[in-house]
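Anyone able to model this chain together with magnesium ion?
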Amino acid sequence: MTAPPRVLAVLPAWNEEASLPLVLEELRAAAPDVDVLVVSDGSTDRTVASARAAGVRVLDLPINLGVGGAMRAGFKFALANGYDAVVQCDADGQHDPLDIPRLVEVAAETGADVVIGARFAGAGDYSARGPRRWAMRLLSTVLSRLVGTTLTDTTSGFKLSGPRAVALFAREYPAEYLGDTIEALVIAHRAGLTVHQLPVVMRPRAAGEPSHSPWRAGIFLARAGLALAVALSRPTPRPTTTHDLVTAA
Ligand SMILES: Nc1nc2c(ncn2[C@@H]2O[C@H](COP(=O)(O)OP(=O)(O)OP(=O)(O)O)[C@@H](O)[C@H]2O)c(=O)[nH]1
Ligand SMILES: [Mg+2]
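re: yes, here you go
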C-alpha cells in the first residue's frame, strides 16, 4: 500500500485576524491530516499572532507581495519540506475545508497536476454579475480551449497542486494581479501539466468586508483581459524534471 500524500494547505492571509481562528479550527476538524501554513505579507492587524495562537506554521513576510507572491513563498516552503501537494485556500472562510480531501481524491483518481475547486459548475448558487461575470465567462472559454478540458472558474483561489505543479510553481508563480489564477494555469499547461476541476460551493466571507463594487468589477474586466494577454505572450517555461522534485528551490 502506498503512503497517503503529504498535503500542505497554504492560506494567503492579509489582515484576516477576524476570520482566521474559526477558519483554522474548521480546517483542523475537516482535514486533520493536512498541515497548514499561513502566509501573511505585511498584515497590519493581528493575523500572524492569531495564526500562531492556533498552532499552525506561519510565514511572516515583511512586505506586501499580493496573493501570487505569498503563494510562491508557500510553494517554496512545501518543496523544501517534502510535501506532495499544496492546496491553496482562502483565509476568510469562503472555501469549505471539507472539500480539501475531495480535491486530493480527484487528483489521485485523475492523475491531474492541478485540480481547481470551481464555482459555476453545478454546485452551490454563487453568482457574479455584470462585467465581472462576463470576464469570468470569457476567461473560462479561452482557457478551457487552451488546456483542453472544461473549466468554469479560472479565477478560483481554491486549488490543489500536485508534486510537479508544486515544483513548477515554487520556481514560477506570477505575483502580478490575477497571475496566481489565470497566468498560473497558462504556465502549468505550457509546462505539460494537466488541469481538472471539482465543483465546489463558495460560502460567504466569515468576517471583514467584500472587496467588490461596480467600478472594481469594470477594472477587473480590463485587467483580466490584460492578464490573459500577458500570460499568453510569455515564453514557454522549461519542463518540470524529476530534479526539480528533489531540489528545494
Ligand atoms: N498574503 C496575502 N494574502 C492576500 C492578499 N490579498 C488578499 N489575500 C488573501 O487572499 C484570499 C482571497 O482574498 P479576498 O480579498 O477574500 O478576495 P475575494 O474572495 O475575491 O474577495 P471577497 O469577496 O472580498 O472575499 C484571502 O485569504 C485574503 O486574505 C495579499 O496581498 N497577501
Ligand atoms: Mg474572499
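The chain is about 45% helix and 15% strand.
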